[in-house]
What we know:
Layout: H1 2-30, E1 38-45, E2 56-59, E3 62-72, E4 78-85, E5 94-100, E6 107-113, E7 126-127, E8 132-133, H2 138-143, H3 146-151, H4 154-168, H5 175-191, H6 193-212, H7 214-233, H8 235-279, H9 281-301, E9 314-320, E10 326-333
Helix pairs in contact: 4-5
Amino acid sequence: MKDNLSGAAWRLAVFVVVTLFGAFSLLAIFAQFRFGESKEYRAVFTNVTGLETGNFVRIAGVEVGKVKGIAINPDSTVTVDFSTDDSVVLTEGSHAAIRYDNVIGGRFLSLDQGAGSPRILGSGATIPLDRTAPALDLDALIGGFRPLFRALDPKQVNALSGQLISALQGQGATVGSFLAQTAALTNTLADRDKLIGEVIANLNTVLGSLGDQKEQFGSAVDALTDIVHTLEGRSQDLANAVAYTNASASSIADLLAQARPPLTKVVGETDRAAGIVVADHDYMDNLLATLPQSYRILGRQGLNGDYFSFYICDLVLKLNGKGGQPVYVKLAGQSTGRCTPK
């Protein structure tokens, strides 16, 4: 019993160790722990809206560290403490910018090498304000159109849209009705010139913010141009892909059309067979109950090889007699050996 207890204790210890190792691995993966050596830096920003402690630090899209802390300075600027892998080298020409990580407002800190001295920054150094850039404020961009949205009458917009759809579909009364709705809408906008002025004033603020980000917008436009050129160069491949997809869809449709009659017949025969089984369920129950024993008997008969041994004790021929009564004629028989009556 002592040996059994010792074996159980060893198995329990191994199970606990493996479980703890698995839990720690999952925690390290989902919590995104970093165990390597790192260096600490600081960067000064005018605005860090949306940036939080724990956000990633990236260089060319590759994660190299995390944001460690955010603090407000007396001059209304913000100091961001962040760490990077020990292999990352920052210089006096390095720039820091806050970028959008996803469409729901997540941010990350991006590090880029710009023009400047190649002198290496030591751990604990600070990237000054003139080499940092805040994130674009999309809230201000969308909020600038809010007065215009309030100026529009939903009923007039709906009526205008309905008339346009009806005219294009050939179901409208006249195009003149559509023009009348357009005139009514433009008159409403003319009466709301004050609100439109507010929109323009808000857009001036937005454009000022966009002007500070002109280099980033230029890079985005260049990247979009490259994408369009790449798609243009692959236009034939895209056209072939669409054609092959269309051909595949047609083939699948033809296959389903050919397979429908056999499938319909199979379903019908299955229903018929199920009805027969249900009607004679007693026989099926007895068959299923006796099959295991019959298979066991057959298994014993085949123990000596891939053949069955049979001994003929009696050979009887059954005939139909007068009036349909059965008549049995014994052709052979023996009562010795294995056929000896017990």
